Structures are given as structure tokens and as C-alpha cells.
Amino acid sequence: xxxxxxxxxxxxxxxxxxxxxxxxxxxxxxxxxxxxxxxxxxxxxxxxxxxxxxxxxxxxxxxxxxxxxxxxxxxxxxxxxxxxxxxxxxxxxxxxxxxxxxxxxxxxxxxxxxxxxxxxxxxxxxxxxxxxxxxxxxxxxxxxxxxxxxxxx
Length: 153
Fold this sequence. Notes:
Blueprint: E1 12-16, H1 22-32, H2 38-49, E2 54-61, E3 64-76, E4 81-91, H3 100-114, E5 120-122, H4 129-137
Parallel strand pairs: 4-5
Antiparallel strand pairs: 1-2, 2-3, 3-4
């Protein structure tokens, strides 16, 4: 697997999330600004594990979970091809700047290529300037503006 940038002896392991990872997933989603309880995270992991178009990956260093990425693939009528959408990416605050986010993106790109996906999209809150710089640094270009309407019926 990949190595942490700037460290020759610490490796980053990326693997699929399992139900037993619910506490870590809840913690990381909270860091991203989407808090949930352990049981809610377990339900989300179960949904992803039963949907072949979704992937939820965790990054670990020395067995400690330090990052998460979620990916969804879909057919785009507009593009006439399969595309992948990163629906969440977070690296624990104390672990940022060590290559973990880049390692998660590389894994997403490997999965996408294996599935025949030719385009990956990621959205990021307009206030997350550091995240925008990170994505640009990793080869992602600015794209369309996204509009949202919550249906809180």
C-alpha cells in the first residue's frame, strides 16, 4: 500500500468499512460537520455494504482509523457514461498533511478505473477553502456550481 508523505516507516492502510467501524465512522463524520451516533453510522455502513454502487473506505495508520472517503457510481445521461461521485472525504484533524487524503483519492481513482468510470466528481462546501486547494493540488478542476433544496416535508 501507499506510504505516508514524509515518513518512511508508517504505512497507510485503506480498507472497506465494516459494521464494527461504526464508532470511527461516526467520529469522522462529526469532524466533517455531519455528526451522527454510532447506531446511525452502523445503519449507513450497512446500506453502503449492500449497494454495489457505493463504497465506504477507511484509512488507518498502525491500526488507528484516521480518514474516510465515500464514493457512489452512477450512469450520467448528460455524459453518456458512468461517473463516480465522492460524497464525503475527511482526514482526522491531527493526521492532516501526512498524505492520507491523497491516498484515499488514489484508492477512489483505482476503484473508478476498475469499474470503467471515466470521470470523478467531488463537491465541497463553499466555505472549505483548504479542501478546495487540496482537491486542486490533487488534479481536480473547478466545475459546475451546485444548488441544493432540502425537502423537509
